[in-house]
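Follow-up to my post from last week.
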Amino acid sequence: MKTIAFVGALLAAVSAGCGGGSDDPLTIYSGREEELVAPLFEKFTAATGIEVEVRYGDSAELAATIAEEGDNSPADVFFAQDPGSLGSVESQLAELPVGTLELVDPQFRDADGRWVGTSGRSRVIAYNTETLTAAEVPDSVFDLTDPEWKGRVGIAPTNASFQAFVTAMRFSAGEDATRKWLLDMKANQVREYEKNTPIVEAVASGEIDLGLVNHYYLYLVKEEQPDASVENHFLEAGDPGALVSVAGAGVLASSDQTEDAERFLAYLLSEEGQRFYVDEAEEAEYPLIDGIEPKEGLPLLSELEGPDVDLTGLGAEHEATIELLRETGYLT
Amino acid sequence: MSRGAGSRPPLLLVVTAGIVVALLLLPLAYLVIRVAGGGRAFEILGEASTWRLVWNTLVLAVGVVAAAVAVGVPLAWLVTRTDLPARRVWATAGALPLVIPSYVAAFCLLGFFGDRGLLADGLGVERLPELSGYWGSLAALTLATYPYVFLLTQSALRSLDPSLEEAARGLGASGRRTLIRITAPAIRSAAGLGALLAALYTFSDFGVVSLMNYDTLTRAIYIQYKSLFDRAPAATLALLLVALTAIALVIEYRTRQRGRVYRTGPGTQRQPSVLRLGRWTAPALAFCTAVVGLFLVLPAGVLAYWLARGIANDRALDVPWSEALNSLTASGLAAVAAVAAAIPVAVLALRYPSRVSRTFERLSYAGNALPGLVIALSLVFFAARYASLVYQTLALLVFAYIVRFFPQGLSGVESALERVNPRYEEAARSLGRGPLRTTASVTVPLVRSGVVAGAALVFLSAMKELPATLLLRPIGFETLATEIWGLTQVGAYSRAAVPALALIVVSAPVLYLVSSERRFESGSSG
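User reply:
Got it. Predicted complex:
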């Protein structure tokens, strides 16, 4: 046993000795799906020569992992699906260089400069194209409480993107209006799903007619079923259902490869890194830097007008939203 | 019940078992640290919704246990004690659903029975009654857990000494009376252990209840973790699951105490008498067909349908060789290690019964009902702080599997050990063998069928494990389960069908070997 411990300690010492240089691969915790972002990591390595090692998982679970690891986290970069996951480990993230932050509009980055949005997504209503025309789809989520839509609408109350939308509604329409909307939706027999993809699939199959989702799930479902009868409808300006949110990334304060990590973030926001969402990624998210138009067929990012809310604030308000969803019977 | 009582257990045995149990309690230690950390820890015990979750969880577990026993016990009896045609095929197929990840099972059931699923399509009806909530969860979890009951009961029936039943018949007891008086008590403890595992699995499951939209403690724990800020409420709910585990253990222990049947000979040199089904053959076959059809063919069929759709759409479908190899390696190591760790705990508990040894044994179940995410985070917590050398290595992943599935291995060893008459060990001791040599040379060979069954249970459970695998695997170490997860995350079901079917295909030979294990035994014993 002693020999093993000794050899182990020796190995640790040796590997620590070699650890200083940037020859070590960069460790990325990715809450974004491998299927979607693996090609982006490859492009980064090709462009910079920096090798990466990626741990894929659920954004919230990876955030919890980083929190439990504390200062011993092997992660250099946290690449997450939503501002909430990044916000929950904000105290463990380092401040980013101003040059990187300023590539992105202030509404899409952390106010304290600890994480930055890397791609945008809009909330939309996905609708079944066999039963409805675009003109028949409501332009505001507040219309969905109408008896006409009884039992025909799907949501995902346990999903972070839906919860962020509810927070946005609380900010823009007020606490009482949000509670009333949630209760009215319940009374209108809204159907609950686990997450966004099953909602779009349910819309495509006609199980429901409308679904509250992020815009890019449509493309994933069409990848699987090319002739699925489902399309996106963008909501009117200022409606909470038109919330524009981001996936984003931050650098761990405990990282010993800060320089490479910052280069990774800079790459994500480079022309090449952003063009990825337009030219290659099947899910068609919005590039966030100036001068790159989104994939054909999508409205411009500047034309999308979500409710007037601060994405950083969504994180801090998250608990109150959970509480409200619990009160109104969506969560236990 | 004089199982060598009175003799003191060898110190080495006690220390080994103690270390094993202490390591298994790490997740509990983590939960206590988190609850003590404050936040809304205790408040939530006063909330009505918390107790509704407890109720939901219990009601589901009771239903699952009843269904798992109703399916698993008759199936085990049919494939071991009757002249049912193609018994080994049924035995393999009957155990295979264990390897289907429960969230995949739920997906498949929904894909088939869902109100716009394949069945509704096939029948040409607009809508079917919804299969979700309680009944949907019950169906999917029965699929996931009845193999526990089936495999353990099957192992008990195999190692039951045929001469007992023959003696009863010889003394004029009818077949039915023999079944009730001899066979049933002999398998009760094994079936009880299977039922216990089914209950604890139900407590810990997230995949099914989340897809079926049924609120249980585990679902609430996940939601709490996703709400990201205060980790104390999740820890409190997890400790409630541990409390429920304690209740389940008490119930199981009570049933185990009644009736104990030892075999009188070590070997299985003779085949037990086989009941001729005669005119009951058709109903028996119908039962097996229904079970295998619903719980194996149906999900596999849905997967095959997705696969066919992928092929029709010209999707790139890769055979996941390296993922399969990774799954086999990690699960195989876990199976061997878990059973090796279980032997000292089982021997201590059953051969040197005392308050301490019983407590050790019962404590080793404490973490079995915890959701995989909780176990994973607890090991993240300890390993990142105190064992960074092993953090995110294969060793830690295997250790996580042992922590999660130790009782699966223990139950196999125990149910076999319970049927071994301690007189053999006493004889060895009286001939001058030390206690450890006796364990190694007499006890372990006698319980081989149980050891194999226990190892198989751990192996199959680990093959499909997801939450701990995601967080603790070495970076880049893809298993079949993580591959399935990654693909279903983006809705790529046709491609996810490949690793899901691979999971079934690579596990089938293992189960086939287990079901033929009696041959090895008869070849080498005597």
